[in-house]
Amino acid sequence: MRIIRNFIVGLLLVFVGIAAIMLIPSPQPPASKPWEVTVMPDNNISVFGIHLGNTDYKTAQEELRIFGKTAIFTDPDNKATVEAYFDSVNLGGLSAKMVLNLDVPEDKVAAMLQRASVGKLQPSGAHQHELVEEDKQFLLSSPVAAITYIPSVRLSREMIQERFGEPDSIDVGLPDDKGNTSESWSYQALNLTVIFGSTGKTILIYQTK
Fold first, then answer.
1. Hey, which residues does 46 pair with through a beta bridge?
2. Which pTM does this prediction carry?
3. Which chain regions cross the lipid bilayer (predicted)?
C-alpha cells in the first residue's frame, strides 16, 4: 500500500510540475525603440515591428501588443484619412501616443463615410467620423502607410541627432501667437520627419516612399 501511495503522490507532483511550467509565460521579445529603424528591400522602413506599406493593421496591433481605435478624419478641405489611434503605447520603456495611417482605396473611404456617424469637431479643426463595425473589421487587413509617434517625454535635439545623425534639411515654422516656433528635421533615407513643436512636444512621423 505504501508503494502505491508513494507512486500516486509522485505522479501528482509530476502533474503539478508540468502545470506550473505551462503557466509560466513565454519570454516576449524586447520591444523596439523609435530610433531602431530598418530600411527594407522595397526602400520602405520597418519600425516597431511594422513594415510600412506591407504590415496590415491586425498584425501591427499584435506587434504593439495593444488594440487601437479606428476612425475617418476629414479636414476643413474635406480631405479624408483613415487612422488607427492609440492613447498610450509603452514600447521599450517609453510611453507615447501613436497614430497609424491606413492605406485604403479612395472609393472605399467614400463608402465608409456614407455609413459613418456625423463628424465630431476636433480641436485641430478636423472632424472625426465613427465607423460601423463592418468597416472596422475590413480595416484589419489594410496596410499601415504611416506612423505618427508622440512620446510623453520630450526628446531633445541632441538626443535625436545622436540616434539618427545630422538631418538632411531643417525647416523652421512661423512663430505662433506666443512667439514660439516649431522645427522640422528631415531624414530622407529613413522617410522620417522629426518635429520639435512650439509647445515642447517632439513628434516623429514615419512614412512610406
1. 38, 51
2. 0.83
3. 7-24
Give which of 204, 201, 85, 205 is closest to 152, Cα–Cα.
201
Amino acid at 170: I
Which grid cell sits at 202? 517632439
> Residue 73: CB partners within 8 Å, gap ≥ 6?
80, 81, 83, 122, 126, 127, 128, 129
Domain positions in the chain are: 31-207
Radius of gyration of the chain (CA): 23
Report how far residue 63's alpha carbon sits from residue 47's, in angstroms, rounded to the nearest whole number: 10
Q: Measuring CA to CA, which residue among 33, 54, 31, 34 is closest to residue 204?
A: 34
pLDDT tens digit at each of 209 positions of the chain: 555 554 454 444 444 444 444 444 444 456 689 999 999 999 999 999 999 999 999 999 999 999 999 999 999 998 999 999 999 999 888 899 999 999 999 999 999 999 999 999 999 899 999 999 999 999 999 999 999 999 999 999 999 999 999 999 999 988 877 778 899 999 999 999 999 998 889 999 999 98
Name the burial class of residue 134, with classes exposed (0-12), middle (13-18) and buried (19+) by CB atoms within 10 angstroms of its CB: exposed
Other beta carbons within 10 angstroms of residue 50's beta carbon come to: 23
Instruction: Convert 140-209 into a string of H (helix), E (strand) and C (coil).
Output: CCCEEEEEEEEECCCCCHHHHHHHHCCCCEEEECCCCCCCCCCEEEEEHHHCEEEEECCCCCEEEEEECC
